[in-house]
Amino acid sequence: MATIDLRSKVLTVLAQRGEAISYRDLIDSLWQTFPDMHQHFLNLYVDEKRARKDIRIRLGMIVKNHPAVFTATLADGIVMVGLAATPVDDLEDFDADVVDDSDEAGEGAEATLPGVYWYTFEAYRKENQPFPIKIGRGKNLLLRVSQQVTAMPEPPLILGTFDHHDEVSLERALHAVLALRGKRKKDAPGAEWFVTTPAEIEALIKMVLGN
């Protein structure tokens, strides 16, 4: 389990909790939210105690190495971990970059192109009105989506992708315009969910790129 993959899960759990929690509660929440990860650590260490000790060390490193995203404070002798008051742009960078290019590389990776993607879940989809859509970026778009939704109860519904050599700037432009239009879904974890439509996203890409 790569540390980079783990930190994205920590971000998700803390955003869902909405408050600082102890490392013990954080580990419990990670186990409950991502049972596949729990099983991965149990397979590595056989017993729960050793698995908890290892993930506690990894969590400490993640919090220490990302002070702009995570906070750790001492309260009544217990270290409490939470989300920092991070600017939206920094949070977007962290959320979008939780998987390294090296993690996305592999057999057949030479055939992929960087770009942006947008997806939702069937439970959110609506035919004739805006609905929650996540807009992200990656070097390998389909792999990037699959790595984010392993713990979800249903598969993602990929609504579209767009190849572009400067996926970072394109994603930021789409986020910025939609945020200015008041479309950001504020109660979603991370900063990449918007209440919009596939047609609006496609029109924005044409507008941004001047086509």
Helix content: 40-55%
Order of helices and strands: HEHHHEEHHEEHEHEH
Please summarize the sheet with the most strands: 4 strands, antiparallel
Instruction: Tell me the number of strands.
Output: 7
Strand coverage percent: 15-25%
Structural class: alpha+beta
Q: What is the global morphology?
A: elongated
Low-confidence parts: 87-92, 95-111
Name the strands of the widest sheet in spatial order.
6-4-5-7
Number of domains: 2
Total of helices:
9
**C-alpha-based Rg, rounded:** 18 Å
Could you explain the architecture of this structure?
There is one protein chain. With 211 residues, the chain is an alpha+beta fold. It has two domains: 3-83, Orthogonal Bundle (Arc Repressor Mutant, subunit A), CATH 1.10.10; 88-209, no CATH class. The protein has helices at residues 3-17, 23-33, 35-45, 48-65, 88-96, 101-104, 141-148, 167-180, 198-209, and strands at 21-22, 70-75, 78-83, 115-120, 131-138, 157-163, 193-196. A four-stranded antiparallel beta sheet has the order 6-4-5-7. A three-stranded antiparallel beta sheet has the order 1-3-2. It is elongated, with a radius of gyration of 18 Å. Mean pLDDT is 79; it is low at 87-92 and 95-111.
Please provide a brief summary of the model:
48% of the residues lie in helices and 18% in strands.
Question: What are the defining features of this structure?
Answer:
211 residues, elongated, alpha+beta, Arc Repressor Mutant, subunit A, 2 domains, 9 helices
Topology of this structure?
Blueprint: H1 3-17, E1 21-22, H2 23-33, H3 35-45, H4 48-65, E2 70-75, E3 78-83, H5 88-96, H6 101-104, E4 115-120, E5 131-138, H7 141-148, E6 157-163, H8 167-180, E7 193-196, H9 198-209
Antiparallel strand pairs: 1-3, 2-3, 4-5, 4-6, 5-7
